[in-house]
Description:
heterodimer, A: mainly alpha, two-stranded antiparallel sheet, 35% helix, 4% strand, B: alpha/beta, Amidase signature (AS) enzymes, 11-stranded mixed beta sheet, globular
Amino acid sequence: MKITHEEVKHIxxxxxxxxxxxxxxxxxxxLGGIAEFVEKLNEVDVTGVNPTAHAVDKYNVFRADELKDSxxxxxxxxxxxxKEAGCISVPKVVE
Amino acid sequence: xxxxxxxxxxxxxxKNKEVTIKEVxxxxxxxxxxxxxxxxxxxxxxxxYAYKRAEELQAKLDNGDNIGILGGIPVAIKDNMCMKDTxxxxxxxMLSNFVSPYSGTVxxxxxxxxxxxxxxxxxxxxxxxxxxxxxxxxxxxxxxxTERVPGGSSGGSAACVAADMAIxxxxxxxxxxxxQPASYCSVVGLKPTYGLVSxxxxxxxxxxxxxxxxxxxxxRDSAIMLNAxxxxxxxDTTSVEIEVPDYEKALDGSVKGLKIGIPTxxxxxxxNPEVKRAFDExxxxxxxxxxxxxxxxxxxxxxxxxxxxxxxxxxxxxxxxRYDGIKYGYRTANFDNLEDIYANSRTEGFxxxxxxxxxxxxxxxxxxYYDAYYKRAGQVRTLIKxxxxxxxxxxxxxxxPTAPNTTFKFGEKSNNPVEMYLEDIFxxxxxxxxxxxxxxxxxxxxxxxxxxxxFIGKVFDEQTLLKVSYAYEQxxxxxxxxxxx
Lengths: 95, 485
C-alpha cells in the first residue's frame, strides 16, 4: 500500500511532529511497508464480530467521591520546564 | 559471591544471619561496578538509597521483626516505572530530566516486601522495540555475547539478572518485552494476566496490552516476585479484584496428567531449526515427565502481529500526546509561540522508532481510516481470544517457542521495521488475548546463545503456568548455566 508524501505531512501535522523532506520520504516508505503488512487482516471475515478493546471485560469502575490530599504542588512543579508564581508558564497565546 | 544466589537461597541466609544485608548489597554493587562498562544495563543506580535501606532492614531483622518476603533482596526495575524522587526517563530524551514525584504501586509493593531497589534499567525508548537499541542513553549488551542485543524492550532488566548484577528485576510486557529478552538472556521472564499487577505508575505505552512482571534466575523466584507484586489496586481501574493465591505453593514439581497443547501449524513457519530442535527436546522431556501432549490449532494467531501493529501504535499515539513540553519533560529551546513548543519539543525529544509508531497510530486512527484499521483489528482480536478459549477447553497450558530466533547482532535488523517486528510473532498473541505467559531457559544454539521455551496459561491461572515451568526446570539443567562474562 502506498502512502503519499501529502498524507505523511498531514499525519505529522495531526501528531504535532515536524518532518524534514528526507524524513517525509522515509516515513512514506516505512509506513507504507507497515500498512502493507497489516493489510493481511483484510482476508479475515469479520462479519458480525464485536470488536474487543480490552482483554478483560470491565465497565465503569467508580470510586467514592471523597476529598483527599493530592500531590504536593512544589514537588509537581519541580518538573515543569518553566514556572511563575506557583504556575506552569507558557508563551503568550492571546494577542 | 552472594550476587550469584537466588531470592530463595538468599532469604534463608539473611534470616539465619549467615550473611548481613549490607554484605549482599556490597556484592551486588561490586558486580555492577565490574560489569556495567560491558553490559550497560542501568540508567540510574540508587547506591545511597540501597545502603540506607540495608541498614534499616537489618536493624528490623536484628530486632526480631518480619522484614518481608523480599527482605534485603537487591532488585532492579525498568526505567518506565515511577519511583519517588528518582529519575524515571523511559530511556527517552523526552523524560531525561523527569524526577518522579510519586512511586508506582509495584515500587511501593516491592518496598513493602522488603526489597532494595538498586537501580533503574535501560530499555527501548518508551518500551518500543525488541532490542533495547532504541534507548536514547546507552547500548545494553547481551551478557552471553556482548556483540549482540539483550532483546527488548526490557533488555536492561533481563541483562542485569543474567549477569548477576541484580538478584531479580521487573520489566513490562506489551508484545513480548519481558519474555523475548528473558529468552535471549537465559533467565525466567513472566508476563502475568492483564489486570493481575497494577499499572499505576507504569509509564503507558499501549494501555490495553501493558503488564508488569518479573525477571528471575529460576521459577521459584518468579513465584516469589509475583507474590510480592500481584493484587488489586484501586488506583488502576483495569486492575482486577481477585483473591491472590500463594504462587510458591503451586510448585509441586509434577506435570503428571497435565494436558499441554502445541500449536503446530502456527509455529511451523520461520522457526530457526536450532530453536525448533530445542523446543522439540523440551516437549519430549515434558512427555517423559508424564504430561499429555496434544496438537491444537490457533487459526487466527497468525493475525496477532498485524492486529498488534494497529492497536499498539494507536494507543501509543494517544498516550504519548501528553508529552508537549509544557508540564514536565523536555522543552525545546527553539520556539516563538505555543504551537512551536509542542511540535519542536516532540520532534527533538522523541527518537526515530517512537515517532514512527506515533505516526502509524495517528494514521490508523485518522478520519476515514478508523473502520478499516482500528475497528477491524479489534474484531480480529475477538477471534484470537475465542481461539484461545477453544484451545483451553481441551488443554491446561499451551507450549511454543518464545522467539523464532536467538539473539541478533546490533544493527542486524534495524533497516526494516517489519523484520524486527517478526521477532515478536510468538509472544504478541498472549498480550492481544490478555493471557499469562512465561519464558524459561530451554537450551543453547551452536553459538552458545540462549533459547527460551514459552508456556501460555488460562486467564489468572499463573499457578499452572508456574507449576509446569518449575517441573520442566527442575528436571533440566539449562537454568543453571551462567554467561562467561
